[in-house]
Amino acid sequence: MSDETKNGTSRRGFLRQAALTGAGIVAGATTARASEPDPKITEVQEWATAFGDPVDAAPYGTPIRFESHVVRRNVEWLTESPVSSINFTPIHALEGTITPQGCAFERHHSGAIELSKQDYRLMINGLVEKPLVFTFEDLLRFPRTINTAFLECAANGGMEWGGAQLEGCQFTQGMIHNMEYTGVPLRLLLEEAGVKPEGKWIYAEGADASSNGRSIPIEKALDDVMVAFFANGEALRKEHGYPVRLVVPGWEGNMWIKWLRRIGVYDKAVESREETSKYTDLMPDGRARKWTWTMDTKSVITSPSPQAPIRHGKGPLVLTGLAWSGNGKIKRVDVSLDGGVNWQEARISGDIKSKALTRFHLDIDWDGSEMLLQSRAIDETGYVQPTKDALREIRGLNNVYHNNGIQTWWVKADGEVENVEVA
Amino acid sequence: MSDETKNGTSRRGFLRQAALTGAGIVAGATTARASEPDPKITEVQEWATAFGDPVDAAPYGTPIRFESHVVRRNVEWLTESPVSSINFTPIHALEGTITPQGCAFERHHSGAIELSKQDYRLMINGLVEKPLVFTFEDLLRFPRTINTAFLECAANGGMEWGGAQLEGCQFTQGMIHNMEYTGVPLRLLLEEAGVKPEGKWIYAEGADASSNGRSIPIEKALDDVMVAFFANGEALRKEHGYPVRLVVPGWEGNMWIKWLRRIGVYDKAVESREETSKYTDLMPDGRARKWTWTMDTKSVITSPSPQAPIRHGKGPLVLTGLAWSGNGKIKRVDVSLDGGVNWQEARISGDIKSKALTRFHLDIDWDGSEMLLQSRAIDETGYVQPTKDALREIRGLNNVYHNNGIQTWWVKADGEVENVEVA
Q1: Which of residues 16-55 of B touch A (CB under 8 A)?
Q2: Oxidoreductase molybdopterin-binding domain location, by residue (chains A, B) (predicted)?
Q3: Is residue B181 in some structural domain?
Q4: Domain limits at A344?
């Protein structure tokens, strides 16, 4: 973090500059240079004259040392205790839609525990015909499904309620990841136990000290909730809940219980600590709105952004970012170069999956003048991502959670980028 | 490798047993146990009484120690030199469709080189209007696309030409991976250089000592070939060609040039070492068939399999595997429990993408008797995966490459699994 943001000062009210005319749409133009003698290609290089690493150098490989900056990072002034804290995904440096487990957002309430498959148990009890305890091998006998879904912390963008404070989308929108999960539909396990007619809620808790229990309505539990073992093709990592976590597509990340220990079935919500004192929306009148489970439609330009400035000067420039909706599929993403005055439709790249990260691109020809970059996502229900100010009008400034407002990046003439707001 | 397979002895001709009636379709049955007092869940466990790892424990995480067996492995008697060899994906232990870069099949011809973005250059020359040299930053200015594709080595399954030799699908079918790539369509770079009318082939080569050059017809080069920077959301790993590799969907892995250095445009194929003395199909008459680029439709049951035996005894059993086709999408996968006498349709899980790995599942109720498991993939063109013997009738036994024959696993009553062939 830069010094000026460490104390959380705000830069709200940055004025939209009328003269911002930094870029037009590019149609195929590029800067590829006519070939001149370049010894890096015309001369035989050192790496072409010797053997590289053998195939047994790394039975399980890690990123090359040149990418050592692409890692999860925390924010010191947000971290009270590292066992109950957050570590943000470096979305400014990623592309495509999948988030590798190794650099995917972590949040723990009492640290990431080490739990073996041999020691693992899952209990289903409460209002069921037949209380059950499953070993890990029991779970492996049930039919499996695959689903790609984003997980977003309810607090993602939370620091932005008070203004543009954090320099980089890793910190402003990086409490998110997107993985391909394989596991058993929770419905099948609940059917095995037999939910009694009066069972209207489940309460899911983890095996860690915090237990981090959350209530989920039975309709959602029987719909698309998954008891997952695999993420992006391999076992869940320790920090993502090995060996078993709950996947709750479209709903706030805190409900995706890690190291899943118990599913209790009840006639009403438990109203636990994590769903009353936390993860509620403190409104302007001092009352708190509870149970805002669905993560509303949102987007952010990941490059350029404060941690990914423009290094190559003017000319063709790729703008890229992510969009997502807890309500279904992304229908369209618009991008503004002038702080929301004019909008143009971005190109969606790759698949559009329901409740999963969607990648967009816009190719422009940058003339080197300043820009105020914004993106605005629209989902299949027609919902349009709002401005931060529109959210504040309704929700005030007390809130920490559920900020899906439009993000603005001020691109300066030298290519550096700053987190600002337009007024 | 077990001792009995180290020397490459064959077990061709294992007889199909008429009495194999090991399993029927399962309809919802499970073995979930009625809950009995189990101290692992009824007593407070050690991991619930202490803090786990803090969020800054691993800025870039790796698999938990309990999964240390899920790694790439080589086969000693296949490895002449580790810098010119293969390391197989542990597909027996993976699920879903994505292959993590860390355990994805590697094959090098002179080792994995370390090449920085600063040192990287890509030359396009030959029959073009304007020869070009691109830096890495130049490439970042071009419009990007996303595509998920499987890479399969032409030699995948090659040891099976001579019979069932290797114990485990990691070794028989593990020269494969499936990743989500982001990069620039090669077409855009070729258009920038301007291909002359007489330019009918490209020749792609790498920056490593082997250069591993391959010729590709211009039609394919202008179709779906990508100059990729990202795999599964992050930068390519060193062993996968950092910073730039070619992605050639559906075509043999050797053409996916890593550390891409040059694209030459020519009026005919170069007929390089790697496309004449290697990666050709030696036919029964001693002549070699060249340019079998497309990887034909194939499938394999990944679990149970020799490295993934049945540990939990009889009852509900999940059969799972992978299917793929270089010609497009998988349409259907059939599974046989009795060595190809009877077939039943498996369930496709997750997305079916063209030229990408597709996951299938079949849920059965295993009575504990022996099975001869087979899978048979059918692609959207109607092509049906053949038996190994059907391939041998046409192609003989001289060949090493392009074996897409049906794999058989002999499941014994104790749950152990062996690689066999039915006759």
Answers
A1: 28, 30-36, 38, 40-41, 45, 47-55
A2: 115-271
A3: yes
A4: 3-24+294-420
